[in-house]
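Q: Here's a chain of 496 amino acids. Please give me its 3D structure as tokens.
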Amino acid sequence: MKKINLKTSQFLVSFILSLGLVTSLHWPLQASAQQAAVKGLPDFTELVEQVGPSVVNIRTLEKARPQNLNGSGMDEETQELFRRFFGIPIPNPGTPNAPRQAPRQGRTPVPEEAQPRGVGSGFILTADGFIMTNAHVVDGADEVLVTLTDKREFKAKIIGVDKRTDVAVVKIQATGLPAVKVGDVSRLKVGEWVMAIGSPFGLDNSVTAGIVSAKQRDTGDYLPFIQTDVAINPGNSGGPLINMRGEVVGINSQIYSRSGGFMGISFAIPMDEAMRVSEQLRASGRVTRGRIGVQIEPVTKEIAESIGLGKAQGALINRVEPGAPADKAGLEAGDVIIKIDGKPIEKSSDLPRVVGNTKPGTKSTVTVFRRGATKDLSIVIAEMEPEKVAKRAPEPEEKPKVASSFQGLGLVVADLTDAQKTELKIKGGVRVESLQEPALRAGLREGDVILAVGNIEVALAKDFVAAVAKLDKTKSVSVLFRRGDLTRFALIKPNS
């Protein structure tokens, strides 16, 4: 009895252990299967059904220039050369043994015909026929044809084109169209799945997918592009970039390519920027942008440290346009714009975007960093106009009054004459008469006008000498200088 109980007991233990083993093996397998299901590739079929009908094919036509008068493929002069030098009459196509052409005065010009110009994509913005696409798709076209997914074709009217952002709006005469949903670009994350629909190489309603590779990619003055690895090719331009919620977050616009085809890097215009542009195009047919009249350059780490800015941020002004809003507000070359209306200017490319998106006539506050301190200036934003080409003033022949030298920086400087100050439109500064190391190494040249040394403004040669005397000879020094119409910083490093 005890023996049987022992065997039974052993059997039960073995059985329980075996169940535990099976359970312990089965649980991870089940969990991993569920985990794989969660991390599996997304299914885009519902998105295609949802957004696909809103994507259109856009064909553009242009009027062909008058060619020959009889369809031979040659103009009259070429045909005359063939007759004179080879004795060959040029027949009309499809007309064997055709006689020589009639005299010029008896010919009737062939009417202009629209010829294919290009193929692109677009998407329906509103149910009453407004369609968004790229400016480069429709700009300059004589005729725009829009084909819907149901094969209906319409002639479209170009409402407006904005080349700076590469956004255009066209209109077709139709109602009840399936419009897209516009997504919130601020919610878009790097690594998120996205999809594109368009007409690459003229192949309608082609679907490709990938992920967001980067945001705020600087490839233009007014747009921080969305970078993706979605396959985009010629013909995709103007088509939508769609998130997994079926919302349009961008307009596929550019690719990086060495071959002309897709190489894994494509760029889309953020939809929030595109909508701002489209609203103005629909309202007035054009886009108005603000301007303040400055030329800028990036603030490098070396410049930021040398002027006491702390970190590389803002936009460094190297020229202020005379009479422009910046000039009237008191901005100066050498200022670093770090905020506009409290909005930080992290990098120089932020400035044209912030100012450009500000309505002309708006009174704004510009925060600048000038000679070691911040300063708020009031400015009225003007409307953008074509840039004026600045001409460099000729060097006056009047000789300088005083010359001073400082070999520690490798510079010999002189006071400016009154004529030089008038030509350059500045109140003071010293002119570089000659130079050697380390000023040469810093990129300075003869004729440059030094305005400040180490954040100390210099109006005369004696000011320059006094400022240099206060410097630490073992550290690099920033020099604000003027060359022609541009003002820049140079970093003079002491000889080691």
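Q: Can you summarize the key feature?
A: DSSP finds ten helices and 28 strands in the chain.
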